[in-house]
Amino acid sequence: MKSFEDLVAEAEAADVNGWGFDWLSGRASEERPPWGYANRLAQRLARVQSALDLDTGGGEVLGEAAGFPPVMHATEAWPPNARKAHERLAARGVQVVQTAHGAALPFADASFELVTSRHPVSPDWAEIHRVLKPGGYYFAQHVGPASAFELIEHFLGPLPQERRLRDPRDEAADAAAAGLTVTDLRTARCRMVFHDVGAVVWILRKCVWWVPGFSARKYHDALLALDMRMRRGEPLVAHSTRHLIEARR
């Protein structure tokens, strides 16, 4: 294994734009939920004439679909990701719109038969309801409560209040309060394994909301403690939580 300093420097220099995770190949792994979101998304896109993908990242997951409906839009708030999504999807007829967090969606009422999202930042149920056509569906995979908290709490300490956020039952209730009927709700807890400290640095640079203000210098001692464990053959094991939710207007 490379030295601690080399692993950190390598991870700090690596590109974290977009929503791909190929850089972690051989260094970290994560189980996937059993329902196969990307395949289910592609099936639903093939059955509609209009769709909107929210928080599309760099368009990686949406881009896996073999085809798109005649009207296909995607939104993304982070400018580097919005550019990547445009580069990946525009030639296939997808209109990528850069938005702002918390702002209303820039679409007319009842614009889409299908609204989708993989790991939305914070679903705005009222806006989702507004842009869906009557009879249309929201189909998404959300991050669940306390996801990757074994890793996050290594740096931030216990977070008892934050552990209760993103509860799927609460989200289903919020969807219903906005006028949607939840037709499917499934949950999964998936094992994550990090084998070297570079993988930890890289993921915390990419998922900036996990440890706000993270830098390798600021958290040098916590990273060094992880590195020592990993060199003894003890990878960092955490668990991601996910839920699949489908709701009808």
Automatic annotation (TrEMBL):
Pfam families: Methyltransf_11. The keyword Methyltransferase applies. Residues 52-139 form the Methyltransferase type domain. Its EC number is 2.1.1.-. Coiled coil: none annotated. Keywords: Methyltransferase, Transferase. InterPro entries: 23S_rRNA_MeTrnsfrase_RlmA, Methyltransf_11, SAM-dependent_MTases_sf. GO terms for biological process: methylation. It is an enzyme of class 2 (transferase). GO terms for molecular function: S-adenosylmethionine-dependent methyltransferase activity. PANTHER family: METHYLTRANSFERASE, METHYLTRANSFERASE TYPE 11 DOMAIN-CONTAINING PROTEIN. This is Methyltransferase domain protein 2. It comes from Achromobacter xylosoxidans (strain A8). The lineage of its organism: Bacteria, Pseudomonadati, Pseudomonadota, Betaproteobacteria, Burkholderiales.
